[in-house]
Amino acid sequence: MDVNIENSWKEQLVDEFEKPYFRELVDFVKTEYQTHTCFPKGSDIFAAFDSCNFDDVKVVIIGQDPYHGIGQANGLCFSVSNGIAIPPSLINIFKEIESDVNVSFPSNGNLQRWAKQGVLLLNATLTVRAHQAGSHQGKGWEKFTDAVIHSISKNKNDVVFLLWGGFAKKKGAKIDNNRHHILTSGHPSPLSANRGYWFGNKHFSKTNEHLLSTNQVPIEW
């Protein structure tokens, strides 16, 4: 099956695209996009991969599903395009970055600049119906993104995985922690952050410390 995804990922995942579940997933997504308003736009479904090729991946951040409000989702987890109001979870991410690595609050929530430095911004589910959170869960995306995580774990070394919240921690269960560096904390959503499970995790400085210790270029957050 020909999937429009960046070539280095196509090589890693070629077997996945031929599996029955993926064919069913493609049919489901096509039907959903034809019959409902869905996000992100079709050309952005694989934007996380197109923005950060396999060879460049050095950090992985795992989200749950895309934003379901009009104009928000751009295919990168937690990210919104220029001109879109910054969502609450991303505000809390930027607050932690500001206190952790002294980078001032940015003017927009577009995380493309992270992706270009080797941060894979991966949602577990890559599509969603407008205004219906979780509406495309359980349709096959989770199997696909498990395969993505497994491929990184198996074929790369010294990647930093940032697992925020219970969902991401479960998603990361198959990561080889002898080969990779895993950081966990609560989710940056207001509900979790306001209970003290997010702020002060220092994940951004810790990520860069690990990258430097393994002779990799740190991320400009």
UniProtKB/TrEMBL annotation:
Catalytic activity annotation: Hydrolyzes single-stranded DNA or mismatched double-stranded DNA and polynucleotides, releasing free uracil
Pfam assignment, any one: UDG
Keywords from the named record: Cytoplasm, DNA damage, DNA repair, Glycosidase, Hydrolase
GO MF: uracil DNA N-glycosylase activity
Function: Excises uracil residues from the DNA which can arise as a result of misincorporation of dUMP residues by DNA polymerase or due to deamination of cytosine.
Family under the similarity heading: Belongs to the uracil-DNA glycosylase (UDG) superfamily. UNG family.
Protein name, entry field: Uracil-DNA glycosylase
Organism: Aquimarina rubra
Gene name of the encoded protein: ung
